[in-house]
Each structure stands twice: as C-alpha cells, then as structure tokens.
Write a structure and sequence with these properties.
The chain has five helices and two strands; from the N terminus they run αααββαα. By secondary structure, the chain is an all-alpha fold. The protein folds into two domains: 92 residues; 43 residues, Herpes Virus-1, CATH 3.30.40. A two-stranded antiparallel ribbon has the order 1-2. Strand 1 and strand 2 form a beta hairpin. Helix 1 packs antiparallel against helix 2 and helix 2 runs antiparallel to helix 3. The N terminus is likely disordered.
Length: 137
Amino acid sequence: MPEKKSMLHSFKLTMKQAEPVQELQHGRVSAAELVQAVHEMLSSAGINLDIEKQSLMQTTLTLQEQLKESQAALLLEQEKCDIAAKEADTAKAAWSCRVCLNNEVDVTLIPCGHVLCRRCSAAVSRYCAILFLTGAI
C-alpha cells in the first residue's frame, strides 16, 4: 500500500509540474503530455500500457488536432472564397448595361456619363435611356 501512495504522490507532483506548461499554452495539452499523463495514471493503477498503444494514442491525438486545424483553415478559405465571389459579382454587375442588364457596356454617354451597351444606346439615340427611364428628361 505505501508503494501506491508514493506513486500517487509522484503522479500529483508530475501533474503539478505540468500545470505551468499548460497555462502557457492557454489550457492546451500536447499529445505527448496527454499520453504521458494517461500512462502514469494507468501505471499508478497497476495497468501497463504497451509502447505500441502509447504510440497509437499519440498518433490519434496528433491527427485529431491536425484535423481541427485543417477544418478551421478550410472554413477560413471558404469564407475568403465567398467574399471573392461576391466581389466578382459586384465587378461583373458594374460592367453590365444599366438598361437591359444583359450585355456588357461599351458606350459612355456624354455629358451624363451613364454607360450602356451598343444595342440599347442605338435604341435611344437622342436621349440618355437612364435619365429618360428615371424621368429626369
């Protein structure tokens, strides 16, 4: 029984020593630290964890952490993609004819500066179609 008590005491000291490291990492524990803690807890209970299982546990934890990081990076990239798509739509709309909203603009009217496609410009050759449609003329 004294052996178990000293093992538990040893485990408590080890965990107390690890606390400052965890605090520096904002509550995060590395895979190696977690595997070591599990190994120490199981050893103190008289259960041996073989090297292969320790290695598998550490690999699993590392892969889970990498998965979380990859998912966060993917989410960030998806948000960037959405923003870029919206900007592309806005840019495309800026080059669309303001009358038919179909063709690209290729005529600028003077003196008002409105832009139209050649087809819509030819249809309303005397007046600016936009000023006419809005009732400004």
